[in-house]
Each structure stands twice: as C-alpha cells, then as structure tokens.
Amino acid sequence: MEKWVLPVGWEWTTIRKVVKDASTRNPSQLPNQQFYYIDISSIDNEKGTIKSVNQILGKDAPSRARKVVRKDDVLFATTRPYLKKRLFHSGDLRVSTWLHILLRI
C-alpha cells in the first residue's frame, strides 16, 4: 500500500530515473586552472544558499571536486540528507561528488 495517493497520470519512481547526471571533469588534468568549488559545508541548509565558495587551482582540488554545475541546476546532498542541504544555483562552478544534481533545466 502506498503512503500517499498520487494525482492521475503520476507514478512512483526513483530519483535516478528522472534526473540527469552532471558532466564531470578531473581537476588534476587542469592543474593551473582556477575554478570555484563548493562542498556540503558550503550550503546554508536553512536558506538554501551558498555560504562560502572556495577558489582553488586544479592541482589543489580535492579528488571529489568533479561535478560541473551550471546556472539553474538544483542540487541536493546525498550524504546525511536529513541536514536538508539543497540549493538552486544561479552560476557556474564545480561541486563535490557528495552533492547530486537533481534537475538540469
């Protein structure tokens, strides 16, 4: 038995079936390129905004700094989801692999 009754035409599914994977890049392949990076701790879970952005060189980037985020992507932290780390992003940057891109508009 389902927990909720869905509207006509809707169906239960998994997130993986309705979202697109983000493109990834290995920052170590561009060791002298500077880019912006956020991880889970960079997101304010009450406001759904970015608290801080790290500007780093590819050679100094953590290995998990691989997902490329574009303007208007919706992000959700898959680690400790109860912390409600989610974000509607309005620029371009790289994010931790712990953040999942839910919606690419």
Describe what you observe in this structure.
By secondary structure, the protein is mainly beta. It has one domain: DNA methylase specificity domains (Adenine-n6-DNA-methyltransferase TaqI, Chain A, domain 2, Alpha-Beta Complex), CATH 3.90.220.20. Helix content is 0%, strand content 32%. It contains no helices and 9 strands. It has strands at residues 34-38, 43-44, 49-50, 54-57, 65-69, 74-77, 86-88, 93-96, 99-103. The protein has a 4-stranded mixed β-sheet with strand order 4-1-8-5, with no helix packed on it. Strands 7-6-9 form a 3-stranded antiparallel β-sheet, with no helix packed on it. Strands 2-3 form a two-stranded antiparallel ribbon. Strand 6 (74-77) and strand 7 (86-88) form a beta hairpin. The protein is elongated, with a radius of gyration of 16 Å. 22% of the residues are buried.
How do the helices and strands line up, and which of them pair or pack?
Layout: E1 34-38, E2 43-44, E3 49-50, E4 54-57, E5 65-69, E6 74-77, E7 86-88, E8 93-96, E9 99-103
Parallel strand pairs: 1-8
Antiparallel strand pairs: 1-4, 2-3, 5-8, 6-7, 6-9
* CATH level-3 fold name: Adenine-n6-DNA-methyltransferase TaqI, Chain A, domain 2
**Ends: how far apart?**
33 Å
Number of domains: 1
Helical content (DSSP H or I, runs of 4+): under 10%
Number of strands: 9
* Rg measurement, Å: 16 Å
Q: Find the structural class using helix and strand composition.
A: mainly beta
